[in-house]
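A common beginner's mistake is to predict each chain separately and then try to dock the pieces by hand. The better habit, illustrated here, is to supply every component at once so that their relative placement is modeled jointly.
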Amino acid sequence: MQHRKICFIGAGNMAGAIIAGLVTSGYPADKITVCAPSGKNRDALKDKYGTLSSSDNIASAQTADVVVLAVKPQLMADVCSELQQQVDFSDKLVLSIAAGVSVERFYALLGDNLRIVRIMPNTPSLVGKGMSGLFAPQQVSEQDREFSSELMTAVGKVCWVETEAGINQVIAAAGSAPAYFFLFMEAMQQEAQRQGLSADNARLLVQQAASGAAALVEANPETPLSTLRENVTSKGGTTFAALNVFNERDLTAIVAQAMQAAVARAEEMEKQF
Ligand SMILES: NC(=O)C1=CN([C@@H]2O[C@H](COP(=O)(O)OP(=O)(O)OC[C@H]3O[C@@H](n4cnc5c(N)ncnc54)[C@H](O)[C@@H]3O)[C@@H](O)[C@H]2O)C=CC1
Ligand SMILES: O=C(O)[C@@H]1CCC=N1
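With all components supplied together, the output reads:
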């Protein structure tokens, strides 16, 4: 892949996960500058991965080919207004990983001719297991699309969505989704301990069950998820008893409501930020 000069604005959980994944997969660390007001996170990335560290968003963006906007959505307007005053974006690709900040909003903040791609990644990018959804307006070149795809492929899998609304659906299905699975695993670990297993064993059992299930899904892409579930479920057996509890509480409806809430919040943020 091309090794363009990248500047990350923001050094938090998500930027850190992408940077770690990128460098681990061979992206040259000296082509990556990480900007944040406080030295804590960006210097930790510098120490661990050899990336460059700066408190100066403007100077770093000025010399970059690619600017990754990785601050919280509520800070995006302030950060962009400051950049817009001093940085010429005409020769730069801008990648936003923020939830709830639309392309239209970026045009208003940084200029109408902005080369922008919205990316919705997730934190498993840290270990090369990320999932990113990408959206670009029509005028974004094939080269910029390809670079964006390759960048995120370095830290996981990617899919493109046809419309910007698709980014909010990606949030519900992948961006926020690691937290759903963590919540589920937390609940299982808690109950396993309550039943008498040690904390270490409870964690190990839940962890391996989850990663084993995910590995089976990955290894059998043609097999419906329902078949994998049925393969565990003996009629009248223990799994059947457990699944009955989920079904009685209508887990499917709960999951649907949760994913709809994520989309609704993203839509609300688009109006707010
Ligand atoms: N955490 C996640 O799982 C995901 C987060 N995102 C998006 O990524 C973005 C960042 O989220 P997190 O990394 O979770 O947040 P975070 O709070 O961990 O990181 C935000 C970073 O921005 C930095 N920052 C604050 N003000 C700044 C400024 N003026 N200039 C430069 N840097 C500044 C902070 O120092 C911090 O390093 C958000 O827009 C979020 O919607 C997208 C997908 C997944
Ligand atoms: O919770 C959030 O708003 C961000 C976007 C997707 C994951 N974390």
